[in-house]
Write a structure and sequence with these properties.
Layout lengths: L1 H17 L6 E4 L4 H10 L10 E4 L2 H9 L18 E4 L3 E2 L5 E2 L6 H9 L4 E3 L16 E6 L4 H10 L4 E4 L17 E6 L6 H7 L4 H5 L11 H12 L1
Parallel strand pairs: 1-2, 1-3, 3-6
Antiparallel strand pairs: 4-5, 7-9, 8-9
Helix pairs in contact: 1-2, 5-8
The structure holds D-4-phosphoerythronic acid.
The site of D-4-phosphoerythronic acid has 16 residues, from α4.
Organism: Lepraria finkii
Enzyme class: isomerase
EC number: 5.3.1.6
Amino acid sequence: SDIENAKRNAARAAVAEHFDPAARYVGIGSGSTIVYVVEAIQALNDPRIANINFIPTGYQSRQVILKAHLKDLKFDSLPPSTLIDVAFDGADEIDDSLNCIKGGGACLYQEKLVATQAKKFICVADHRKLQPRLLTFWKYIPIEVEPLATHTVMKEILALGATSAVLREGHMMKAGPIRTDQDNFIIDASFQPLLLPVDVQKSGSLHPIQKGMEGKGKAGVWEVRELAREIKAIEG
Ligand code: DER
């Protein structure tokens, strides 16, 4: 399909431009687009790739690495204070400032862990994902939560201005909430399209999130990790 071709073309371009066969550590994200990234790496047929440690971002990511007969190295086996040379990953939505919504595949915890420990983060996505504002096409922000904290976090997310906060269920694939690779739950929180600082200046009105956090010195586009950190702070 043309979407699969778009993913494959994005992956080939990302690998051609940002993959270094002499790298020692390469992060591999989760989802369907990343499969094309690994295919493009294999297609280089460079013998040096056998020496690279590929860091997965969850069980599915590890399956993709092993299926390609690449060497995988668990994130916590990275030598301390060693940075990953480059991390490739997909996203659910991206804005012009490269803020991303992550978590459509419920792998956001390890994805963000690997991304934050990489010298370079390459987001690989087809044209559907790039939107002028986050929450334009992808309507909610996935937030990983430790099961016991579910109702507390839901309450705080709603207090931050979320229009809804729903526990992600397995539907016919699994009765009850889905569990992440860390055995946590996912809350999908819906918000109005996020604003960029320029919107706030122009319209002067604050986005509900910014209103909720007004006076805490925070404005502009919120990323899940900032939101989660704020909620953690509120939760204490
Ligand atoms: O969960 C995530 O953030 C993943 O990166 C994922 O949503 C991207 O998936 P896709 O490449 O299948 O669109």
